[in-house]
Known about the structure:
This protein is α+β, with helices and mostly antiparallel strands. It has helices spanning 20-27, 41-45, 84-89, 91-96, 99-104, 110-115, 118-124, 132-137, 238-244, 251-264, 275-294; strands at residues 13-15, 32-35, 56-59, 69-72, 75-79, 141-148, 151-158, 163-165, 168-169, 176-183, 189-195, 208-216, 219-228, 235-236.
Amino acid sequence: MSQVPKExxxxxxxxxxxxxxxxxxxxxxGDATILAGGTDLMLQTKPGGRLPYRRKLVNIRRISELRGxxxxxxxxxxxxxxxxxxxxxxxxxxxxxxxxxxxxNCFASSQIRNAGTVGGNICNASPAGDMIVPLLVLDAExxxxxxxxxxxxxxxxxxxxxxxxxxxxxxQPNELLTRIVFARPDKKLFAGYIKSGPRPALxxxxxxxxxxxxxxxxxxxxxxxALGAVGPTVLRAxxxxxxxxxxxxxxQVAAEAARLAAEDASPIDDVRATAWYRRHLIQVYIKRLLxxxxxx
Length: 296
Ligand SMILES: Cc1cc2nc3c(=O)[nH]c(=O)nc-3n(C[C@H](O)[C@H](O)[C@H](O)COP(=O)(O)OP(=O)(O)OC[C@H]3O[C@@H](n4cnc5c(N)ncnc54)[C@H](O)[C@@H]3O)c2cc1C
């Protein structure tokens, strides 16, 4: 194991379970590093990386029950090991909620999309995690599973409450994110996603934005706006959402919503962009998301 950073304790074991129960038993002591596609983990755990391995490495990639998209009783379910390519190509999602394939299509390169999973994207908890942004506007919840008192237990947590900071979540070390669920969107719901960058599919977002709302007789309701890479976590633009409720989109309304969304964000200056430019992009994207819909 030459890849183990100096400060890590030596890995004592590696396992590649093929069922959820087996995986949960293996991580029950909270001393395992979980490996899905490895596209984040490999960089973080390499020598000089920020994450030391825990005692065991548990590769969950062979758990086929965690891969795929389904619908039951009006609830959509996406397995944690569903890859970004799977999402991009999924017929059910393309019909029911095209914003998810649209986002997957702006994600990294084909190689990364083939390996990277939606569960890994969420658990990595990057403020720039692309799939998190549209899932937030769909009111998604994550299912966390654990092996407790000799049985598999699960809890559902709103994605909105899952992140506590960059790279940090409420998930306990003995828990596996097993699936993402959300209500099948209303037929009148529209949703869109925009990501910055001259080559959006190969860039880590400088700013990303998703917006969803129901439009009935021209009036918006159930408005959700999520912004990526403009705060410590992907965040909801709650002031802009509240402002848009019950409104008909006009150029003036879109401009005010965009201004409020920029206020909702807390961007920083970094190597990719200044805070000023990020606030500017938020405003451009919110107007575009609203105006594109107003043509629909
Ligand atoms: C070149 C490159 C380009 C990239 N471009 C983008 C991009 O455009 N947009 C973007 O958002 N990201 C991008 N990424 C980041 C990365 O590819 C994604 O975040 C990806 O979805 C991570 O998934 P994974 O399966 O590879 O996760 P892993 O690397 O296997 O895991 C990531 C973290 O989540 C934990 N984990 C994974 N699955 C679970 C689970 N089911 N339950 C509990 N914990 C779990 C792991 O222990 C680890 O801490 C890029 C990465 C690279 C290397």
